[in-house]
Amino acid sequence: MKNYVIHDLPDYFKQYKKSIKNPKKFWDKIADENFVWYQRWNKVVKFDMEEAKIEWFKGAKLNITKNCLDRHLAERGDKTAIIWESNDPNEEAQYISYRELHERVCKMANVLTELGVKKGDRVCIYLPMIPELAVTMLACAKMGAVHSVIFAGFSASAVTSRVNDCEAKMIITSDGSYRGNKAIDLKGIIDEAVEKTPSVEKVLVVKRTNTEVKMKEGRDVWLDDYYPKASADFVTKIMDAEDPLFILYTSGSTGKPKGMLHTTAGYMVYTGYTFKNVFNYKENDIYWCTADIGWITGHSYILYGPLTNGATTVIFEGVPTYPEPDRFWAVIEKHKVTQFYTAPTAIRSLAKESSSWVEKHDLSSLRVIGSVGEPINDEAWHWYNDHVGKKKCPIVDTWWQTETGGIMISPLPFVTPTKPTYATLPLPGIQPVLMDEKRNEITGNQVDGNLCIRFPWPGIARTIWGDHQRYKETYFTAFPGKYFTGDGALRDETGYYRITGRVDDVIIVSGHNLGTAPIEDSINLHPAVAESAIVGFPHDIKGNALYGFVILKETGESRDKDHLRKEINMLISDTIGPIAKLDKIQFVSGLPKTRSGKIMRRILRKIAEGDFSNFGDTSTLLNPEIVDEIKDGRIN
Ligand code: WTA
User: For the chain: N or C, fewer Cβ within 10 A?
Assistant: First the structure.
């Protein structure tokens, strides 16, 4: 990778200026000098922010897997591409070379072809963090199929709605998965999910736990019956720059999850460029991102970004606390990890343990440590800095989103001086702006507002699968001409950004984005429930936890409220997944509503937080008396 690296702060400012003054020239050079193409583009970028139509590198022909795999074979064939670390520390790690990964991907692409998958078909992947997850994603990319990975913690009905939304032809899953000391019946969840997914023709099953599962004749097939016989030669499909690469679902303010569509060339260029710079990546590094591949962080910074750079990337199947709360530190020591990238919620939960768990491991291989997914609080930042980075490793607090494809605002290690809780400066090519409620740009420093981005960058999602109108409305209408992130931010006196959190109805719990609407919808399915409202409240480890206010159809004092609470949480767990369960449920006789019928969530938020000091203007409330009732009944 040439002309790619930012060396110091003056160089950053120089590159940044160049990228803003002439984005076309900037990205043209990066794309040209660092990736392999079958054919060059005619136009670097074409966009219409009103219509939310964005195209990068139009006319180019490529395949991302040529960049992730094939091109490394000559020089790095024997280099380890993936280190796979099992949930069980006694199971041997796998070291998969670039040559072997390439071979596995070609064989897998042949298996998928034999089972009827073609270019443009959607394939849902519901797998634990095992090598086959990476292999099947890359196989899809190699053959031009569109992968849609569904986090393997989602419930059957969450899987059903995603599979139906993208009309997937195939689901790839495993018999089961291991998480800590638990074994989870993944195939059973898929069996339930596929009952209502007419588009699914085949379910391909990978063996992981060797547990007994039901196989439906004609629909379900074992990978082991196909893979050993598959040829290792596969002719890579030639893709257009804007051909879909993958769909990844994210929560929105309204009920239905949004299938964010990322396309091929821009995503590849952006993740490759940002990986190299944000992690100060060097040829012999061992890079580890602890995210699940089922989230965008895993797509961009376990798989595609590292592999286009020819890096060694660790895939970890387990959890931070199994078998003991030092598993992360043990893995860093074992594999001599140089870059470690995790989430504030993991940092907070490990910081609660005795620091002897960290001290007993040699973490001297670390050079850069990172954080992603939610704001990192001061205390967690310092603990991470002191105990993990030993005050020597810069912390890259990376702000970005499923929609942005790659990191947008982040310090560059050894370049940008860090500041606790600040994501600091935008990467080259990224133009953040703060907007007020009246849609005016807030200029100057020491200000806060709604975070928007002014000009497109190559990694931005192109649409919501099957619903361009919703894409346009969600991201491009609140502040015309700009991409609206849904986050609030402040800019300090030096121009550093600090992300303050969501300004919409998305709540981030343990780093997972949860929309209030789908959770409310699922609570309302309970026969005893008339209406409900969910808000977030601060939680020491999870960042936010969920507080539900629930109106029952009949107040009936006789009902066992604790039993009802359990039933409501079970319902949420079944329809969305255990991550969306509520920490507190308060039964109320009404909700504070405006005259137009809108729930005034800011009042509920204050009550959930236990802050009764100032409810702000309540004059537009239809039923102001309800506020006292709810306040008095608050659960501590
Ligand atoms: C939040 C994850 C503060 C933010 C890559 C964003 C952050 C949402 C940070 C996207 C950070 C992510 N500091 N907040 N460093 N990183 N967020 O789509 O609210 O799962 O909008 O993408 O996470 O979450 P998503």
Answer: C
